[in-house]
Amino acid sequence: MVNQNIIIALSKGRIFKDTLPLLAHVGITPQDDPETTRKLILDTNHPHIKLLILRASDVPTYVQYGAADIGVAGKDVLMEHGGEGLFELLDLNIARCRLMVAGRPDAMAKMGRLRVATKYTHSAECYFAEQGRQIELIKLYGSMELAPLVDLADCIVDVVDTGNTLRANGLEPLLHIADITSRLIVNRAAQKLKHRVIADLVDQLNNYLQEATLAQ
Amino acid sequence: MSHKLSRWALPAGIDELLPEQARRVEQLRTALLQQFHVAGYDLVIPPLVEFVDSLLVGAGEDLSLDTLQMTDGLTGRQLGLRADMTPQIARIDAHSMKPETERRLCYLGTVVRARPDGLGGSRTPMQVGAELYGVAAVEGDLEIISLMLRLLHMAGIECVVLDLGHVDVFGELARQAGLNAEDEEIARDALQRKSIADIHALLAMRNLAPAVQNALMALGRLNGDWRDVLAQADQVLAEVMNPVMRRALDRLHHIATLVEQNFPQVSVLVDLSELHGYHYQTGLVFAAYAHGVGREIARGGRYDEIGEAFGRARPATGFSTDLRELLRFYHEPALQLATIYAPADYADARLLGAVERLRASGRRVVMTGQVIPASATQLVQEGAETGNLWQLMGDTNHG
Fold first, then answer.
1. Residue B398 lies in a domain
2. Which of A111, A151, B152, B226, CA to CA, is 20 to 30 A from B19?
3. What is the pLDDT of residue B120?
4. What are the beta bridge partners of residue B365?
């Protein structure tokens, strides 16, 4: 078969850390540590499998365009991206958190147009549209918690894990938008062109996940 | 950026073809149209602008968002720039043609999309495709698929993967499950992404019969080599099988068998959750994939009811692709003959005669006031004593 190399896109940090055991279970281990190496493409113990280490929000883009065949991306990032050109083959049940509206305890009581600071502009827009609330979106790229503190916004939309950062700043998680886990995503064309290799990998991961669920 | 600097810039997703590309596009275009011609397909050239109502017939909401619109000063009605030529061809078949039993039409033209179309973000793809009207039998599907595969092969694509699907399998399951329009749309979207987790989250709240729920979730996994998938489908869908689904699966089996037999170099897959164009497709759907491209290179299927809005519903099946996408695979057949240069002397009748004779024989002659490099193929004067004759020098194309 032609071109059966597999490129897997991951993001640094929690997703990488939580994905490693899954990959190890299907016999894939990286040859370099992404925290220390300067390499952008990591070799694995299989010559035909490479890992790309990307910014989390870039993972769906690389996979959509086919620059990577497979990726691991949070549902938050996928909801924001739209998921066009992608298959979400597995819920990996890792990097679990919630997408939430947060702010000062009385933030939702405000009448009229709500100022919402977030990097999840698409998800925020959809959520408040469903709620029938007019909002003004303020696109930020990080440190969302700061926005209500300096009165840049009334509330924020962000992923919440323990909620400790929020509480340390006098904010609270207020409304639940969605439960978030990481998904295994696959490029539509790669799924067709390399379907044997990819189906094998997905089946092995799926069996492992089912066993892990049963064990719990 | 100042206005002066930005004046050369084109709008996002709108590009032009420079000489080298334009020549290749034209060669490929001619070659494709010849393929259509010898297969019995007649070329039609629909207008760039039409009433929006006709442009959007049978299509989903997406096409409306993709269509650039303006008001017609003459009628006050909305005009649209075509974003897809398929409804135009259906209109032509339904209205402008004598009712014959079968009709084969092909088309090629630039469409304009208000939103960038998928990867690369082009808003002006050159859509090329063929439509077969009046053939409901499986032979119609086979004819269109074979035509598409021959065309892709001719465009230089060596290893094609053909993916087959059928919208009736999901359609029947959604009906059995009693999903309302909104839930059906959510389920379709989840299946389109093969997200078993999302479809499970939707169905878990609906209290469905377990057999239907399991079958809907299984659809997300029913993709791969056609033999495996159809064998699995017979087992997994046994409890919910009905005559409509049986016919759909049998047709897929029939098509896959014959395509594999006739095109041994093509890998045939079946994907029962492939629901692209679910709103207007009425049967078989298919897509072709090529190595090195992150999305399908051509797609098509059956849409038997599209002509109804124009007063004449009849069986219809077709495919389309983007000429510019094919271009990256295309290798021109023959080397171009070198350009011949001649001085721009419009007073020399003998020179002009020589130039005309060369051009008449198909050679490319440029008359220029610039200095012609000695290495170039050129017309040179053999000197006054030999009668002021113009001779071709340095022509490597004639052995």
1. no
2. B152
3. 64
4. B340
Compute the nearest-CA separation of B199 from chain A (Å): 11
Residue from the list B196, B269, B295 with its beta carbon closest to the beta carbon of A195: B269
User: Could you report the per-residue pLDDT of A106-154, keeping only the tens digit for each?
Assistant: 999 988 899 999 999 999 999 999 999 999 999 999 899 999 999 999 9
Angle value at C-alpha B81, between B77 and B85, nearest 5 degrees = 115
Distance CA B178, CA B324 (A): 43
Q: In what order do the strands lie in the sheet with A70-74?
A: A41-43, A49-54, A6-11, A70-74, A182-187, A86-91
Q: Do A187 and B196 make contact, defined as CB atoms within 8 angstroms? A: no
Among the partner residues B193, B223, B290, nearest to A86 by beta-carbon distance:
B193
Give the distance from residue B286's alpha carbon to the nearest chain A alpha carbon, in angstroms.
12
* Residues B152 and B131 occupy one common structural domain: yes
> DSSP 3-state assignment of A107?
helix
Q: Distance (Å, rounded) from C-alpha B64 to C-alpha B81?
A: 11
CATH number, domain with residue B123:
3.30.930.10
Q: What phi and psi, each to the nearest 5 degrees, are found at residue B298?
A: -155, 150
B320 and B369 assigned to the same domain = no
- What is the per-residue pLDDT for A138? 96
Q: Are residues B151 and B37 in the same domain?
A: yes
Q: Is residue B369 part of a domain?
A: yes
Do B213 and B265 lie in a common domain?
yes
| Model pLDDT, residue A40 | 87
DSSP state of B309: G
By a Cβ cutoff of 8 Å, what residues of chain B touch chain A? 118-119, 159, 161, 163, 193-198, 223-225, 269, 271, 287, 289-296
A4 pLDDT tier (thresholds 50, 70, 90)? confident
Examine residue B259 and state whether it is found in any structural domain, yes or no.
Answer: yes
Tell me what ipTM this predicted complex has: 0.83
pLDDT tens track for B303-353: 887 777 777 778 999 999 999 889 989 987 766 678 999 999 999 999 999
Return the pLDDT at A144: 93
One domain, residues B183 and B105 = no
Cβ within 8 Å, pair A88-B194? yes
Statement to judge: residues B117 and B198 lie in one domain: no
Nearest to A189 among B193, B223, B289 (CB): B289
B114 and B183 together in one domain:
no
Tell whether B99 and B204 lie within a shared domain. Answer: no
Q: Which of A188, A194, A195, A201 to mutate to test the interface with B (most CBs of B within 10 A)?
A: A188
Would an 8 Å CB–CB cutoff place A159 in contact with chain B? no
Could A87 and B197 be called an inter-chain contact, meaning their C-beta atoms sit closer than 8 Å? no
Secondary element (H or E) of residue B127? strand B126-133
Nearest CA in chain A to B191: A87
For residue A192, which residues of chain B lie inside 8 Å, CB to CB? 161, 163, 269, 271, 287, 289
Res. B281: pLDDT tops 90:
no
Cβ-based neighbour number of residue A174 at 10 Å: 17
Closest chain B residue to the Cα of A186, Cα to Cα: B193
- State percent of chain A over pLDDT 90: 84
Q: Taking CB atoms and an 8 Å limit, are A87 and B293 in contact across chains?
A: no
| B139 domain-assigned | yes
* Mean of the per-residue pLDDT values of chain B: 89
Segment B60-74, tens digit of pLDDT: 677 888 899 999 999
The reported pLDDT for the residue numbered A76 is 96
**Are B97 and B103 spatial neighbours (Cβ–Cβ below 8 Å)?**
yes
A22 pLDDT above the threshold of 50: yes
Q: Which domain holds residue B259?
A: 160-290
Strand order in the sheet with B78-81: B49-51, B78-81, B69-71
| Cross-chain residue pair B224–A195, CB shorter than 8 Å | yes
Is residue B399 pLDDT above 50, yes or no? no
Q: The whole model's pTM is what? A: 0.88
